[in-house]
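debug: dumping io for the single-chain case to check the tokenizer round-trip. Nothing else runs in this session.
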Amino acid sequence: MGTAKRSQQSSPFAERVYAIVRRIPPGRVTTYGRIARAAGLTRSARMVGWLLHEAPADVAAVAHRVVNRNGELTGGWAWGHPSVMRALLEEEGVTFVDEYRVDLERHLWEPEDEFSESS
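debug: decoded output
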């Protein structure tokens, strides 16, 4: 299992995902699906989540800026509890519409589709 994770982490898709996550500005969020699309694999939101679970330290340091398509803190347990992820986002000025759902209309950051291949 460790070998599979290492090969995924070093894949071109993984490197594209990590490059996108590193660019999410403070005070903004984006979604797993938007990252997957911008990295060239439209229907790979879950793969983005797995990659973030095993991300390098510099990516893990900003991974709290990734939420699900509804703005919910589904990755919050990576920090022990979603309230920790919420606190990290609030420190950056992100506002919430529910306890664990960010205001996407106000804080959504759209990654460019620079890695997508034209069909």
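debug: round-trip ok. Strands lie at 30-31, 66-67, 96-98, 101-102.
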